[in-house]
Amino acid sequence: MNISEIISQNKGTIVDVRTPDEFRGGHVVGSINIPVQELTQHLEELKALATPLILCCASGGRSGMAHGFLSQSGIECYNGGAWTDVNYYKSLQK
Hints:
By secondary structure, this protein is of the alpha/beta class. The protein has a domain at about 50-85. The protein is about 40% helix and about 20% strand. It is built from five helices and four strands; from the N terminus they run H-E-H-E-H-E-H-E-H. The chain is globular and about 30 Å long. The chain starts with a helix and ends with a helix. The relative contact order is 0.26.
């Protein structure tokens, strides 16, 4: 299953790893905000979320870093890239 299918079928959890200010400026409805620099402090919370986690940010760079860290921590996750792309896939939701 690819990212667009996971999102459009409402599976898992969308985690936006941008700063709170960026998140307030626009985000995917239903997503949660945990900045990439705070992931280690929220690891147990992240492990308790519905998986897979779909990670997003402004362009895919920070979500790529988050993907590497969370994957190594045993969490099923995908780099969704830009939040606007994830938002588009969410708009196709069945």
